[in-house]
Records
---
Amino acid sequence: MQYEHILIRYGELTLKGRNRKLFTTQLAENVRQALIKFPAVKVQKNHDRMYIVLNGENPEPILERCSTIFGIQSMSLAIKVANEEEAIKEQALKLLLDSKNIRTFKVSTKRSNKDFPIGSQEFNHILGGYLLNNSENITVDVHYPDLEISVDIRTEATYLTSKKIRGAAGLPVGSSGKALLLLSGGIDSPVAGYLAMKRGMQLEAIHFHSPPYTSDRAMEKVLDLAEKLSFYGHSVKVHIVPFTALQQKVHREIPHGYSMTVMRRMMMRISEAFARKKGILSLITGESLGQVASQTMESMYAINAVTSYPVIRPLITMDKTEIISISEEINMYDISIRPYEDCCTVFVPNAPKTKPRLEKVEQFEASLIFEPDIEEIVEAIETVEIKTRESQEQELDDLL
Ligand code: ATP
Ligand code: MG
């Protein structure tokens, strides 16, 4: 069967009322970007669904690429036919006969085009009867058919589809604003970033780097993780924070039980100051309640106190096993477990306070002059832009 269209269903997007156009426009743009290496392909957007016109391209790699685009509920290969009974019958029969290992089928007609003269129930019978009469050893099963042929009679044409392929769901990346992800090289924060993207957030990432205590390899890990993230959306900028001097200062001047809390507060301050400068309105971390000393309720309270920014913690209620299984699913786990140390593990005291008290933290910080350091650090942040694989290939093509 020569399919010429892929039908894309929006799912949750259809609930968005007046904002819907914004969402669908973003989704169409994201699909176009993701399919940039298939120049013949065209994307057509309606208010309630989208069509990819294949123009001769093989649908398989396109379906596969689209399966990681958030905002798509499901996809089907579709045949576009004129709104004529005979034409629909002919194509539906072809679809049935071309399907392998089919013993039962069902026809489901939806007629949004009321100018079409036959009602949907009646058309189910007419088409079902026609298919039965023109095939052998195939019967109708309305409950558990091997093949369901959906006939969607619309104003511009009729679309025939059979299989539904599950999409990545969620909302189109870019439709929920931009957030700054605190990205370490660990398992959790990349998963947090992925889940935030699934809710439509576009990401920039900030990474705290403490050479020579942390190596280039540790940095490389972070960039590799950012590349994996970029696959689900747009290019990801990774902002690299030169953190060594301030970390040393904290380590030197704050009692060890509290140095971890203070260091985290510095990370929050720097992240917020940088986000503010970039007009980004929220922070994301990979924190999960109770996982380590800095992720107790008391720690989060003391750390969070330095920022008025919303801090989004997509993993807060998840078990480590759940987080790991997502990490594996999105192919990040093998990168995350590469054994290079993060700045937070290098300076971690033997016994960090699991229940730091805010008054004490503030008291210790009062004797530390750190505001100029923060300003200086924010100024010195360097940015690496991780492009999506598609835009890298496109640039290469443009060069050649
Ligand atoms: P992860 O697996 O994300 O490293 P973790 O379980 O190691 O998390 P922590 O070390 O307590 O937990 O870090 C908590 C969160 O702080 C991380 O999920 C991340 O969002 C942020 N973070 C930690 N280290 C860094 C870093 N070097 N650069 C940027 N953000 C960091
Ligand atoms: Mg970590």
---
Amino acid sequence: MRHKGNNIKLTVNNCNVSYNDEGPDGAPIIIFIHGFPLNKSMWDKQVKALKDNYRVIAYDIRGHGNSEVGAIDFSIDLFVNDLLSFMDALKIEKTMLCGLSMGGYIALNAIENHPGRFKALVLSDTNCRADTPEAKEKRMNTIISIKENGLDKFANDLIINLFSAESFKKNSEEIPVVREMIVKTTTQSLFKSLHALAERKETCSKLAEIKMPVLILVGKEDKITPPEVASAMQEKIEGSQLSIIEHAGHLSNMENEGEFNSQLMKFIGNLK
Ligand code: MLT
């Protein structure tokens, strides 16, 4: 039996996972995967916009939001395994998938390895490349810095890169919301996630094999995964669409939800 609502608990791969599941029974399903180190609430405005016509699911990746950290090390492969087990537990054979940044890394890996389980893909502010040696080193230095300087400094430094200058100028209400998500993530989870991100494999060489509708969205001012990165992915995925979201940085779905939602709804509304 389906449980509808927010913060529903489910054990997946020996880990207690928290998810929101809204919208009518039998409606087309879309699953949202959040970025690092955020949680499912970053999709609240998309869930609200879609839930009258779609079954909308947003879950907390293990170690994030209200999901347990679990005992084992993290990897993108593990996160994909969790996603597939989560879908099995909810008896979802096939779904649309939307991932932002780390959520996009998970979505790309999932589609590469389990293409039959997905109908369409929305990649937001993400990348198919693996970390460079410098990026890996930066992540390890971040771990050291969190140990030495604490979470507040980590959150302050990260937020500067997550939001556009415009969002800061207009004092976006999303900034303290995101800050809270970051500082509520445990250091244990941050360290495990930083290792997983550093060790992830590239998916660029498999993009040409994606044979489903794909929409790529990116904030015009995204400093972490800029529009050039999105455009390089679009060139490799046959038939994919790219839309650059104005007035937004890396968190395009939160910084300009109006444009983001309109592109998303147009894309999924046109799917057969
Ligand atoms: C994210 O938003 O998920 C992160 O920027 C991903 C990363 O650090 O590579």
